[in-house]
Design brief:
Elements (H helix, E strand, L loop, with lengths): L20 E5 L2 E5 L1 H4 L19 E4 L2 E4 L5 E3 L16 H17 L2
Antiparallel strand pairs: 1-2, 3-4, 4-5
């Protein structure tokens, strides 16, 4: 899943805590990259908990849960398409190359 603001994609994870932050926007789970988190007010675009006002929300199985106070509510699903992420023209080529590498390794074992 790319960053909801700039479209950057996560690289292979390193050991330890991820610098990427999760959030919920329009009742959908989103990620924010470390660079976008440096901008003032980056989290103003995220949904907030109705009880405590926190942006530390998770969306799972049709439910929104606040990680700070534990408040849960049903995710509202409207018949509208998800907001598109910025398009990365090289993504298809990168995915194709990655699949070729992985599939070759597995078939050669």
């Amino acid at each position: 899943m790319p960053c909801f603001r700039c479209g950057a994609r996560q690289n292979d994870p390193v050991r330890g805590a991820s610098p990427w932050r999760r959030g919920v926007r329009a009742d959908r789970q989103v990620l924010a990259c470390p660079l976008c988190q440096l901008a003032d007010g980056w989290d103003a675009e995220l949904d907030r908990c109705a009880r405590c006002g926190s942006v530390a929300l998770l969306c799972r199985l049709g439910e929104i849960e606040c990680r700070d106070c534990g408040h849960t509510r049903e995710a509202v699903r409207e018949d509208r398409p998800a907001e598109p992420f910025p398009v990365d023209p090289g993504l298809a080529a990168e995915v194709e190359a990655a699949l070729a590498r992985v599939l070759r390794r597995r078939t050669g074992v």
